[in-house]
């Protein structure tokens, strides 16, 4: 009996403690009894909040700026899983395949411009010429960022993982053990699925599932029965997806250089140079005009003197 009461107390305390949340602001930190929630503005300043109301917009913007500065996502979930993750910005090309169907490490799309790809066929280097050297690199982790269509009833976040595991197994024969984590943001309707294998695993090919799933969500299913959509069933209801973003994480970091940044810096240099040049021209003309006026005045003085 004592044990039961103790258990009851523990559970009760737990429930009460878990009630200390800020309904109107998910980034708020809440603590103590009575429950007090604060929002981080700077490393030192925490703004107390009234979570029964919407948070003033000025506070929200301050918090958002702070989070951006700290590289904290302004969304609660998703984004790059690690700094070295990357997405496919190039789209489709005409690949060279190995005899077993794997991607060759160098791809040129039938041109003289070549680049290195990972085992998922996604570019992981800058573009170069035909002499580019590439080694085979395995993608061991893909993060699927899915946005689901609106549902009548809210999704049960706890049942989502099982639903996703079942769907990926049934449709793409992906073993459940590879689906490591499933996170859910119900406001954004975002489901973040991390699919990961052991680094030394050379049997499982995660890119297959990612490719089929991307087509399923964005275009049309590749299966013969293409009426059958990718669906996740969660607690009696079915959810379909409206968008997907795939992040790839390779065993070795990709070798992209900061080409975009360099482009940006060049643009800045050009603009600054133009502004400086314009300024110099203006100064030059002002000086010339002043000189002209000065000599005119001098000429007039000379006239009056003579
Ligand atoms: C945030 O990320 C950028 C590049 O992604 C990096 O240069 C910067 O140092 C990071 N800042 C912090 C505070 O981690
Ligand atoms: C490959 O070439 C085709 C046409 O030649 C082009 O449409 C496509 O964008 C190219 N893909 C890449 C990734 O360069
Ligand atoms: C969900 O989809 C499955 C087949 O994919 C179907 O059998 C089931 O009836 C659907 N459930 C609902 C509630 O639509």
TrEMBL record:
So which residues are the signal peptide here? 1-18
Q: Transmembrane: is it a keyword of this entry?
A: yes
InterPro entries, A to Z: EPCAM-Trop-2_C (IPR049420), EPCAM/Trop-2 (IPR043406), Thyroglobulin_1 (IPR000716), Thyroglobulin_1_sf (IPR036857)
Q: Name one GO cellular component term.
A: membrane
Identify the keywords attached in UniProt to this record, alphabetized. Answer: Disulfide bond, Membrane, Signal, Transmembrane, Transmembrane helix
Annotated Thyroglobulin type-1 domain residues: 55-134
Q: Which CDD domains match?
A: TY
The organism of origin for this protein: Ctenopharyngodon idella
Q: Where are the transmembrane segments?
A: 261-286
Name this protein carries in UniProt: Epithelial cell adhesion molecule
